[in-house]
Amino acid sequence: MTYETKIIMNYSYNTCDIIGKGFSSVVYKGINTNTKDYVAIKVINRKFSEQLPAIQNEIHILRSLQGRHILKFYDHFASKNNIYIITEYCKQGDLGQRLKQQGYFKQDQAVAMVKQIIDGIYVMAQQNIIHRDLKPQNILLNEQDVRIADFGFAKPLNKLKNEMNVGTPIYMSPETLIKSQYTSKTDIWSLGVVFYELLYGKPPWVAQTEQELIFKVLNKSVVFPDFPFVSDSVKDLIKQCLIIDPYMRLSLNDLIQHPVIKRSSKQIVKPNETESTDQTIKSEVPNASDPWTYKNSDKKLVQINYKNPQINTIMSKYLNPNTTNQKDNKQIKDNQSNFDEITSILQSQFNLCLFLNIMISKVRDQKLQTPLLNEKCRIIFSKHLQNVKENIYKQLIEGENNFKFKEWSLYCKENTYNKFSAKFILENAQFNKTIKDYNEMIKSNKSLIIEYQKYDSEFYQILFGLEWKIIRKIIKNLILEFNHMIIQSVDFFNQSYQITKNQATEIILLQQLCCYLEMIDKFFLKNFDQEKFAKESKIQSYLKAKDMKMSDYLEIRFQIKNLMRN
């Protein structure tokens, strides 16, 4: 093989000096011919045109980020055949290579590196950017400093919409693996995995497939070996980074206050207040392409740790799907239209649970002029969530067929049933938490219940059942009050008025409340028709994050006007 020296503007490199390779690129050690400083030159072949959006994204992100522990960006060029990205040269390679050489790092070395990685994450947080592929191979070493690199998957949180998961599974958070969700805590999970690997030379979970990895993450707690020695405070930090529920996981602000990080962390800059630590960019519904579909695992999982044996069976079949026999396949083909209808009805009811769960959270955060109205609506949504969730649970898990589906027993033999049931089981924990909060609120506030019984006998009935005429009246009042609050801050006479982020959040909630009122009128005031609801409710469209403009708000105001006439 012959090697040659190539020149791009004031940079040059020899094709023998390869320091890294990717699917569509090669990274060379080069030199700035003006300053004589070493640089890294990433050469991307333009024939991989499908990679161009990621390349453009990486260039844009690198140019916008400046920090001691972020890889320095110098320049980029394009020729007929290639794209060139010029960055600083890190002569010690990456953390993945160092781990292979050393096996593991001593605790003080690992902590020092993690503090620097956190500093880099904070630089990203100041611009609301998440990396989405933090791993040792993407953390470079330059003398005693680390540099976060490879920003091909990085994006601002507010620009993440309807995206499939990206990155390396072993470092991906469970909400990303299972539901293709990204939050500002996605990188915190990855950091926890990297920290563990630096200390022990291996990640906390080892798996052959994504299915096996999901099972282990959900069912097996993090185990810390006796050797090498790691302090309890470091173990605590890792555990808090690796909490499955992103709402309970450490936020960036919590992370910097942890005793392990707080010591000698003067260089870390606190992120902007604009950082949304709990923001879920992916909508609360599963990705349309069904991220629960994975390749079959060659390794059989024999232990399922759920208490309910029926759930164990479902999760076992979900993780290790078996093929049905020929007779069943023929029956399935003959009944496909029935199966599609069952799936549609179950999905619409599941979406209703997600919708109600979102509403409870959003209404709880609102400060209304009538606080009692806020509480009443949360009770309504919680009661409704409990009702719908229990119906789905009885249908899927207890097998009561209270939906009265035709060919239900045959549908239960389909992989679709196992996938949908597993999806519901994974979300059910959050539904149960919401309902538990509601039940505890009712039990702990007996005096308020007595007040309802004495002075608001109408609403008192709702504590024992869903009285839709009464509920409709309360939701109307909430819409009117909430709309009045928004009017005070929005200049709706000005067509060019820019809706703020907070106003957009409030307007989306107002739109969702209007949707709920319409559902009451169309479906709940009458004998509920589950098939009609599945076909006509369009509830899934109200679960997705949307950009709001003044014209959208004016449409919602017109919708409110029509709703109030009834």
TrEMBL record:
Chain ranges of the Protein kinase domain: 13-261
Alphabetical UniProt keywords: ATP-binding, Kinase, Nucleotide-binding, Transferase
Gene Ontology terms: biological process: autophagosome assembly; regulation of autophagy
Pfam families named among the record's database cross-references: Pkinase
One GO term describing the cellular component: membrane
Domain of life: Eukaryota
Positions with a binding annotation for ATP: K42
InterPro entries: Atg1-like, Prot_kinase_dom, Protein_kinase_ATP_BS, Ser/Thr_kinase_AS
GO terms of molecular function: ATP binding; protein serine/threonine kinase activity
Entry's transmembrane regions: none
Entries under PANTHER family matching the protein: NON-SPECIFIC SERINE_THREONINE PROTEIN KINASE (PTHR24348:SF22), SERINE/THREONINE-PROTEIN KINASE UNC-51-RELATED (PTHR24348)
Protein known as: Protein kinase domain-containing protein
Species this protein is from: Paramecium octaurelia
